[in-house]
Amino acid sequence: MPKSFRFRLIPLLSTLVLCVLGIALGQWQTRRAAEKEAIAYAILQRGQMPELTSVDLNRAPKDIAFRRMTISGQFIRDWPLYLDNRPLHGVAGFYVLMPFKINGTEQYVMIARGWQPRNPVARTQMPVLKTPEGNIKVEGVVRLSLDKVMQLGLNEPMRSGVILQNLDLADVSKKTGLKMVDFVLDQTSDSADGLQRDWPLPSAGADKHKAYAFQWFALSLMAVIFFVVTGFRRGKSE
Q1: How far is CA 201 from CA 206, 210, 223, 230, in A?
Q2: For site-directed labelling of 125, which of 33, 67, 162, 186 has its Cα 20 to 30 A away?
Q3: Gap between the terminal Cα atoms of the chain
């Protein structure tokens, strides 16, 4: 006895919507994985290149991203900033940021000094921040931007000691009057300040994006299979 297929419009439209959504999101996750793999390759290659100094500050951003850099100058001690929602090894905490005046120039670079845990009782209460005085040398890795987190609402007005969701260097420059360069330096040298500098790689998570892409593509396939199977079942019952 030949099998018959019962066609219905609403299940077809639902299947098409799920397929389009699943394929689109799967492709987006695939692109994100490729981007992070490209970053991982760039980090590996640029980590072996000669170290940059203050004479390289105004080079094109694409030429200095993920390069090692050493600069001399002094911290602007009265302008600490804190980036919220930056967990490390499963512990809630903040990135501690501070502008740094570069010797022999009128330029400042934002130093990501390190990570500190959040006070579990009083979220906005920060421990006393130890900051080296006078001229020092800071070593680090150039980041064109820090990873952004999902932000609900606007940042608090820029001021010393403010807790931010995401960093806007243009806003920092405007409110402080400091001429900020267009990158952040993830500090790797020790300053005896008690901060942790186990910086997460911006390339981390490529495998996670691939897994998400597989799930979205699988959803599209399952939607088609479900539509076909239920169509034949309806045809058989009728």
Answers
A1: 11, 17, 36, 46
A2: 186
A3: 14
